Every structure is written in structure tokens, then in C-alpha cells.
């Protein structure tokens, strides 16, 4: 769940603090002076404010470090470079072959390795020539493979950038929420201490005191989960950024003015988004290039059925029917048994498979775009419809609850029941806002481009 979820939860915490302080003051008003002094701590805030110390990090700086240092991106870049090197290799000619036959011992001259005109020496050189355009076809296949590797790089970049931005936003909101927890929990503890003093005078029930402690327990457990989430997000960010200076420090994301950033998917049209997806989705473009690569491979395999030609020349000093023999050599395999039938069949099957994958991917992209846009629009519509009224209604209800308590119409248990009802409703609103943000990110990821929500 995205960390902005925790921000809405803070509304519940602040509302509770407002109630708890008001509740404590009301109790203090009914106590004698001695009890009032004993419970003055109820309304005092903890003088130790939460201060987060760490390395400030903006989103732009994080993305810059990510593009420069990320090891997965580096690995993907190197894969592209290796494919470029394969193009060079595919275009190289085969090396010529030199064959030398030298007589070891000449019985007539009684010399070893006689290289004079009386000795026997044979030299032969051959060059292999690929027929049916095999070399050009190999170069073309290598170029398609390089293009596929480039799209795989962009797809890796797309996935990792989504992970980077999500982790950054989650850490940003989590750290802001942690400040509220660090300030709120001591105040709740003070309220409970005051309620315990009141309980000693038998002015509240044990069940009422336990209800307050249960609220504190929930805050403590939420804070523990929040710290766990912060550590997890920091771990992910540090791995993604791979910056030595950031490994041993706390990361403090900085996003000035993000709270007021407003964007809505309601204005987006499916057809326009689909065109954007067909143009920008690297996984789709990669499959299209794979189909072209398989076509090039099939053409190469058919060319491999054509025998290659080896041309050369030979010189034989004394081992032929005449001395100083010069000749021309031509060699070519006869395609009687092996005509590359198996590789051709395998390539045809692979091409058909890639075409089916591409067709399925096209259907998937169209379906994903329309589904993601529909979900984003619905979540945005629902949130915009109920967000303002929900917050305003509960704010008005909070004031009414305080007024009713002043008139002794409500007990602390009824207050707690209201808190739980408020919490349940707030969690639903939290889930709605979280679902909306998730839908926005899924839509951007599905389209293959940030269509809205860019800072």
C-alpha cells in the first residue's frame, strides 16, 4: 500500500489527540485542586520534538543517481554493447587457411628439412567464401538482436523507475507520518497517566482506562510497522541508487509542494492512450523486433543449406608429376545428407511462436490500457466525490461529540466507539486513496510513459 495511506491515518491520530486533550481537561475541571496539579501533565506536550536527521534527497537527484549508478541498468547497457560487438563479428570474413608439407629427411642429399631446390616442399592456401549471402544475413540478424536488447534495456528502465519512484514517495510520506507518531505517542501516554490518576479516585471505570491503553497499543504497533516500512524502503532505494555516500545515512526525501499536486485521469481517452502504449511500450516493441529477428534467422538457416565455396592455390616443388607445380584448388561440400533441414524447421516453428506471442501481447496491451484507465477513472471519481464531504462531515461530527460530552451526554466508552467507527471509515477512505494512487501508477506503467502525475 502506498505510503500516502499513512497521511490519512494521521488525521485519525490528530483527531484522537484533540479528543483526548479535551477529555483530560474536562476531567481536570471536575477534580479538586490537588488532583488538578497531579494531572497537569495531561495537557502538556512532550518537550522533545521528533527531529529526523539524515541526508536530504530530492526526486530529481534520486533519478540522476539511479541513471548513473544502478547496477541492473549497467548490466542491461553492457548487454546492448555485447550485441553491438556481435554485429562486428558477424560481418568479419573467415581467415585464410595455410597448409605446409615439408619433407623431414632427404635421402638423396642426406639432409634434414631440406628446403633447397632439391628438397620437397608443398604449400597450399585456401579462403572460404560464404554463398547465398550468409554473411549479410548474419549481420542483419545481429542488428535485430541488438535492437531487441535495446528494448529490453528500456523495459528494465521502465520497471526500475517505477520501483524507484514508488519507494521514494513511500519513504517521503512514511517519514512525515513518523514525525506525527513521535509527537503523538508521548502525548497519549501523558493522557493515560492522567486517566490512571483519575481512576485511582474511582472517577472512571477500569474498562475506560483499558480502552485508552488499547488505542495507545494500536498507535505503538502502527509506529512499529511504519519504522519497518521505512527501513525496507531505505534498503530498496540504497540498492537502486548504489551511491557509496548514502549507504550509512538515513535518507530524507524532499518534495516541496507535492501535497497540492492535483491530477485526474478523467480527461484521458482510451484511444489516445492506446496509441501511446503501442508507440512506447518497450516489451511490445521488443516482441515486434523478435519477430523480425526470427524472420532474419529463418532466411539465414535457408541460406545455410547452400554449400560454401573454398578457393585457393597450391605449390609443390618436387612431389608432383613435374617440378615446381602450381595449381588452383576448389572445394565445396555436397549437400546429400545434411541440407540444414532441422534448423530450418526449428526456425519456422520459432517464428510462428513469436508471431503468436506478439498477437497475444497486442491483445493484452489493448485490454490492459482500457482496464487500467477504467479503474483509475473510477477510483478518481469516487475519491473526488466523497473526499471533501467525508472530511467535512467527520470534522463537524467531532465538534458535536465534544459538545455532547461537555453536556455529559457521552462517556469515554462512547468516545472510544466513535474513534473506532471513525477509524474504520477512515481506513476505507485510506484504501480508496491508496487504490487511486496505485491505479495511477499502473496506468503509467501500462502505457509505457508517464501520461499524468509527473512532478
Could you describe the 3D structure shown?
This protein has one domain: Up-down Bundle (Outer membrane efflux proteins (OEP)). With 455 residues, it is of the alpha+beta class. The longest helix is centred in the middle third of the chain and has 67 residues, at 134-200. The protein has helices spanning 4-30, 33-38, 59-69, 71-90, 134-200, 206-241, 270-280, 282-304, 341-406, 412-447; strands spanning 55-58, 97-102, 105-106, 111-112, 121-129, 251-254, 309-316, 325-331. The protein starts with a helix and ends in an 8-residue tail after the last helix. Helix content is 67%, strand content 9%. A four-stranded antiparallel beta sheet has the order 2-5-7-8, with no helix packed on it. Strands 1-6 form a two-stranded parallel ribbon.
Helix content: 55-70%
N-to-C order of helices and strands? HHEHHEEEEHHEHHEEHH
Look at the structure and give the CATH class. Answer: Mainly Alpha
What would the principal axes of the Cα set say about the shape? elongated
Give the amount of beta strand, in percent: 5-15%
- The CATH homologous superfamily: Outer membrane efflux proteins (OEP)
Oligomeric state of shown chains? single chain
Number of strands: 8
The main β sheet shows up as: 4 strands, antiparallel
The number of helical runs is: 10
Using the CA coordinates, give the radius of gyration.
38 Å
Largest sheet: spatial strand order = 2-5-7-8
CATH topology: Outer membrane efflux proteins (OEP)
Q: How many structurally independent domains?
A: 1
Structural class: alpha+beta
GO molecular function: efflux transmembrane transporter activity
Family: Belongs to the outer membrane factor (OMF) (TC 1.B.17) family.
Organism: Leptospira semungkisensis
Protein name: TolC family protein
